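The passage that follows is intended for readers who have already worked through the single-chain material. We present the inputs for a multi-component assembly, then the predicted structure in tokenized form, and finally a short commentary. You are encouraged to pause after the input and sketch how you expect the pieces to fit together before reading on.
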Amino acid sequence: MNVTTPEVAFRDYQIKCLASYISADPDITPPNLILQGYSGTGKTYTLREYFKANPDLHAVWLEPVELVSWKPLLQAIARTVQYKLKVLYPNIPATDYDPLQVEEPFLLVKTLHNIFAQYKSLREKVCLFLILDGFDSLQDLDAALFNKYIKLHELLPKDSKVDLKFVYTMLETSFLQRYSTHCIPTIMFPRYEMDKISSILVMSRCGELVEDSCLRKRIIEEQITDCTDDQFQSVAANFIHLVVQAFHSYTGNDVFALNDLIDFKWPDYVSRITKENIFEPLTLYKSTIKLFVGTDDDLSTNEIAENSMNINGDEPKSSQTYELSIISKYLLIASYICSYLEPRYDASIFSRKTRIIQGRAAYGRRKKKEVNPRYLQPSLFAIERLLAIFQAIFPMEGKAKSGSLSALREEPLMRANIEVFQNLSELHTLKLIATTMSKNIDYLSPKVRWKVNVPWEIIKEISESVQFDISDYFSDVHE
Amino acid sequence: MTTNKASLPPPVNLIPIKRPSNEEVQDTTSILKKRSKDQEKQKNADPDFTSLQKRLLQQLNGTIPISEKIIFRYLQDSQQEIDRIIKQSVIQKESHSVILVGPRQSYKTYLLDCELALLQQSYNEQFITIKLNGFIHSEQTAINGIATQLEQQLQKIHGNETKIDDASLEKISSGSLTEVFEKILLLLDSATKAGSEDGDNADGSSTTKITVVFVFDEIDTFAGPVRQTLLYNLFDMVEHARVPVCIFGCTTKLNILEYLEKRVKSRFSQRVIHMPQIQTLDDMIEGVKDLLTVRLEVSPLASNWNDTMEKELSNPRSNLNRHIRMNFETFRAFPVLKNCLTPLIATSQNFDSLCSAIKSCAFLELYNTNQLSNSLTGRLKSLSDLELAILISAARVALRAKDGSFNFNLAYAEYEKMVKAINSRIPTVAPTINSGTGQTTFSIDNTIKLWLKKDVKNVWETLVQLDFFTEKSAVGLRDNATAAFYASNYQFQGTMIPFDLRSYQMQIILQELRRAIPRSNMYYSWTQL
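Having made your guess, compare it with the prediction:
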């Protein structure tokens, strides 16, 4: 086996297997090879290292995720294979075949046949590896597609000098298991464990972090002069270990997430480095402990958060405003109440004339349920109920003095006017309120049932923004 | 050859079969490391060994010269049957149609290829093979596929002579589908002419017809619910065409005859060959022996190797034998065995290490471990503590729910409850409440951290990605490209529901979690309601 095996940390077995399945000799290379492993397990990296270490193996890389559908994928294969062969053998005259003509799997076979036929004059058989990196990430993936690829080699001419070998990497075991009866050689990439992850990160990131400009700047600012490169390395390594220990349970064994956290927290960490604590990891840790307590992984932009911190000092929480009108907000609140409060309590909660019905039937006893209903799916309601509750909760401020004549002309209650319906349809378009049917809705039809499509956390924020205490309505049942 | 004792893997009795502990894996990985170092040392291995190794790998990959191809004993009956039919149609110019039925990887195509290649040696130019695959060709494109292959093959037979007598031959694959199909039929019908041309340079007989051999892989895809025109015409040709036609169909469907329409079925010869399966362990061992026995002329080491291997195979207590038995009782398939033997042979550095590798079969253990490393249990073991806690909480909720479904809110509430319950039982220091901010701070932090709901959402997504949960009403992978195309434009209800309320179902239940999670784990006690 004339292949060299590169060193990839914790992937010895996989490299060995690659070396035994992928070689320059087409006779001892199986036509299909699968590498399976979840995201961040080093499939692509290992494969790239392998091909880097063996420059005599010719590979074509394609990423199905970029190609969206099966047809562009076929065309890309024809295009790249043709191009690669041209680059490899510039001395052999080759006619160009239009890759866009490949509109069917069988046309790919035909085109490849034609392309390979031009290289008959080659002295030896060569392997050309076609690597489909992330096959199951193709957007329009279907179950029949993979069958086409694994059987493609059977239709290619046996006597051709160029032998196309397929290497697939894939994420899902469930996808792989569909094709297990084909017995394609498979190399699994298990997920890393915590200690492996941290040593990988130290290996891959340390140098980069030390070279980072923010560290340089800080060193100059703090006039840290008596520090060797090794010591900087150990500062960075220490930081990586801290991040891994603090956030491993949050990120799991996801290298990418940890990398992001490292990138995200490194400048802050560096800004706490002083001349004194650079050699004392413990004091440095103590001064930066805030970084490691929370993920600070927020969707709201950092600038706003920082500004509000500067201004208010102790109130970093920025309140989301949700660009909705007052009417919309109240409609949303009303619909939340509709979805999560049982209708039989409506009379007692919203009616100003109490005791229309006498006795317990008037309000019922609100029993605490086993499961907080707020955690469950919203229930459906009719639009009349929504409008009624909306009317009950919407605050109408009379401009005129109470008791004056003009006060009589003012409406005591909000009416369901055109504005309200406009807002309602807007909420529906925003998918904050949903209906049972999704197309051609007649908003006024009594057959249409509605439900709120917003979770408790957001409705709470919205009601706070209009100073409406929605938790009051739920308080005696669930906290 | 020097015996490198250091490179020998440890004796096998130290490694019990089914005890996936970490030490064992490390043990075997250290072997690998040692081997990789060996490789660097012995870059220039001796040529005898390399030729033996290459030969073995070729045998495993099925790429040795045709005359030496390995046909397992249990396959020989069907091989003879196929052989007979092919010879009848190529030599005696009869028309036939056969369907081979057998599971995947049961050597259907292999046998056909083998026989065709054998005939090619002695009866080249007397037949054309046209291969179609139901996965790659649809019923329409198959016609074009046949036309192109006819073109290519005829070109080969006629050599570079551009003049082809029949004008319609020139571009068989041009024109509309019906035109192409007509041309094909016409060509096949009148192929006597084309055949007579090169009849002279074949074997001197007066006129030789060229037999057309069709090999249909996945023939069931052509036997769809509508019309089956292609099969009808081809089977009809078997009956009526003047040119001998032989049709081989391969399929995995046992009830393939039920797929065929009446008019198609009546034209089919009804000859179905069921691929034989491995019946006994002896068949299997015999097969492995065939696979691994090397001809003596390949390498001077061959006889030595054959002896070693035979000794291992005949000893019922050897590791190799045990692995074959394991395969026999589970997969009962040679391809699986081939897949794991390939790296075993390829990673060996010299003859001694190869022999010891086949004796210990330590690599096969490693291979099996690796194959299972991304299974549900494997993934479970790779979870971080928070991920595991959330998974268990979700499983608890799912077990309590009537329909086994749950959502993020419920799982988080359960997690919160469980963590609070544990923390309240930790007696050390009472929490002190900072009256200023209302925040609870612990002076000594030995409680379990309760992660925020928004942080746990990230964990939730990881768990969904790792296939522990499946969204309710989610439709799996579509069957074909058309369905996938429609699905990409279709929003199902689930995508509209807010993240917290989407309902999911578990792929693993609490009882299974209890068995998979080690007792030493902090959350083991949670695995019981």
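Commentary: DSSP finds 21 helices and seven strands in chain A. The mean pLDDT of chain A is 84. How closely did your sketch match?
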